[in-house]
Amino acid sequence: MSRRGEMFSGLSVALVTPMNADGSLNEAMLRKLVDMHVDAGTNCLVPVGTTGESPTLTHAEHDQVINIVCEQAAGRIKVMAGTGSNCTAEAIRMTKNAKDAGADGSLQVAPYYNKPTQEGFFQHFKAIAEAVDIPVVVYNIPGRSAKNIEPDTICRMAEACSNVVAVKDATGTIDQASQILAASDLTVLSGDDSMTLPLMSIGGSGVISVAGNIVPKDVLALVAAFQVGDIAKAQEWHHKLFPLCRDMLGLSTNPIPVKAAMSLIGMACGPVRLPMTELTDAELASLKTTLKNYGLI
After folding, report:
1. DSSP codes of every residue in 109-158
2. This protein's superkingdom (predicted)?
3. Could you tell me which residues come within 8 angstroms of residue 91 by beta carbon, excluding any fewer than 6 positions away?
4. How far apart, in whole angstroms, are the C-alpha atoms of residue 280 and residue 232?
5. Active site residues
6. Digits of tens for pLDDT over the chain (297 positions)?
7. Is 208 annotated as a binding residue?
8. What are phi and psi of 116, to 5 degrees?
9. Are 148 and 142 contacting, i.e. CB atoms less than 8 angstroms apart?
10. Architecture of domain 6-230
11. 146: helix, coil or strand?
12. Cα–Cα nearest to 60, from 23, 27, 97
């Protein structure tokens, strides 16, 4: 089956937001990261998602990061801008800015904290899709948003909105993704690095990756191997990446560990903003061991 969001197949990287020591935006490093991913062959960048610390950026900074990434990308790499909010009007405003900046699509997280009904989810995403005519990727992450967007609701969105093209599935359940893939032509992307291969095995098209911030070529290799039917090679990459993803990302709340890892491998992107806090000494020692075991330091 041809899937409507195949433009976002492969590796999308949930980009960190680089910051200076004083907590301000590090524009130079942000531009450097875009260039690095162009060189690595990453298919798409996703600025200002969870990994980009969207909850603690001001609205002006949010727009600024997206504008910089789109400008630096300059058509060399796709940009799926994180423009979701638990306020529908604000999500529309940010998505309009992203379209004007040249983004190829928008990532729309499930409204968090206010816990909409399924009808509320439907009306929220429908309002955004109708207001801004760029591709919309629905981001379902119940662990952070406190409520699941049910598969029937997602499929209803697909029927009502032609520019709802894909789902970033961070539910941790293969059943949910299977139901969406069976009942719609939506593209499904893994929202958890360790679930990339399992999701692709049932018809998923790739991943929006956190680990891709530090090992984009390795994540790409996994996806590419599966895409050409080399299942054994894809499994090999999965088993190589799994301990890194488990032991790094499991240390603390994302993006605390990946930002720390980037500093340790010479890609310093600065501190995280409160209420996020840095790794403890014990956690940092564990992270160093994980990175050493992988061969990164």
Report:
1. EPPPSS---HHHHHHHHHHHHHHS-S-EEEEE-HHHHSS---HHHHHHHH
2. Bacteria
3. 83, 84, 85, 108, 124, 128
4. 38
5. 139, 168
6. 899 999 999 999 999 999 999 999 999 999 999 999 999 999 999 999 999 999 999 999 999 999 999 999 999 999 999 999 999 999 999 999 999 999 999 999 999 999 999 999 999 999 999 999 999 999 999 999 999 999 999 999 999 999 999 999 999 999 999 999 999 999 999 999 999 999 999 999 999 999 999 999 999 999 999 999 999 999 999 999 999 999 999 999 999 999 999 999 999 999 999 999 999 999 999 999 999 999 999
7. yes
8. -65, 160
9. yes
10. Alpha-Beta Barrel (3.20)
11. coil
12. 97
275: preceding bond cis by omega (within 30 degrees): yes
Half-sphere exposure of 54 (CA within 13 A, CB side): 23
- Please tell me whether 180 is known to bind a ligand: no
Contacting residues for 55 by C-beta, under 8 A, at least 6 apart:
none
Nearest in space to 136 (alpha carbons), one of 126, 145, 146 = 126
* Sequence spans of domains, the chain: 6-230
Bridge partner residues of 208 (DSSP): 12
Q: Considering the entire predicted model, what is its pTM?
A: 0.97
CA atoms of 132 and 135, how far apart (whole Å) = 9
Calpha distance 295→78 (Å, rounded)? 29
Task: Return d(Cα 64, Cα 138) in angstroms, integer.
Answer: 22
Whether residue 255 is preceded by a cis peptide bond, meaning omega within 30 degrees of 0, is yes
